[in-house]
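task queued by scheduler; priority normal; single chain, no ligands, no partner chains; default sampling; output format set to structure tokens
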Amino acid sequence: MKSRAAARSEDPVDQPGGGGLPGRLGDELRAELIAFRRDLHMHPELGNQEFRTTAAIKDRLEKAGLRPRVLDVGTGLVCDVGEWDGVTPMLALRADIDALPIPDTKVDVPYRSTVPDRAHACGHDVHTTTVLGAGLVLAALDREGLLPNAVRLVFQPAEEVMPGGALSAIESGVLEGVGRIIAVHCDPKVDAGRIGLRVGPITSACDRLEISLDGPGGHTARPHLTTDLVTAAARVAVDVPALLARRADARSGLVLTWGRLQTGHAPNVVPQHAELSGTVRCLDLNAWRDAADLVHAAVDEVAGMHRAKSVINYVRGVPPVVNDAESVGLLDAAMTERRGSYAIEDTEQSLGGEDFSWYLERVSGAMARLGVRPPGDTRGLDLHRGNFDVDEEAITVGVELFTAAALLAGRS
């Protein structure tokens, strides 16, 4: 009697029983995808430098008979599965492929980063692998005549580089012919095997703020003859966020958080220059559009009280990701078909920023939170930390979620 592995064909698709959708992930492809993710994890690349990552994705797609195109910026790809009829809007599956400039501090896994001060600490290696896996499964279904409509794969560079590589991907034409786009983001607060869904905003707007303060310095024995930039910088750091809390609608969630304050070199010298930088985050799209003006006014007011000249560099980042109800319904139906409704939970809006929002300024779509926490794990792993890791069962879940969503969207 043949084993299950021996009886399975080389095709990466296992056909489900019970009249369900085709496209479940076979053991052979599952193992390949885990290895692919680990290879990406060992070789992280920063935004707009993802040449090795791009080549690896391109090579695997071409081996499946697909025709990926590298984006105009030189990294990232777009690839259609199935023949588009030129009329019916396609569903796009989006992944981001870049890593973060932080060290990988894991010591107990063989796939830790081999690149100093670089790590896939936000799960983009998982996002990439799930879209790749879905593309391979859908390509196999297309060869069998089981793909009802073409699907577009988008592997986007530079998500971590404000205002985000999504804009350059859009300029490269990834949304041409697309009517809906979906994505997942790893969530270490959700168990692997589950996803989190939310209609409406699921992330926040995020901008970057850089402030330079200048004024005549001098001896600390005669501060009255100087502009006391240490005090001025301290007041800007404390008072500007407080002013914003009173000048913006509290329901907007507008918050300024500093990440750097630098001034001075000696204990007896009042400096002539100070710098502050941080992020401005906002839950509400309309309030985000007014945030820059509010911040400029507050900084000028506080700095002026201390006779400091302020120069403000307000870098507009990304708007909130706003999920539309129909796209969330598609993800809900896909997950229910694959794992049952018990595998879906409501998720909250986070203060994190995500450039997936730029796609949703142009087409409908939604992002789901992909559970990556090993059930029962108490380590408290979080995104953007050097010890971040995932339960690789999440790869199977992501692939089957995307595959089911593509099949359901094509039949609607």
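post-processing summary
- The chain has a mean pLDDT of 93.
- The domain at 9-201+321-411 is CATH 3.40.630.10 (Aminopeptidase).
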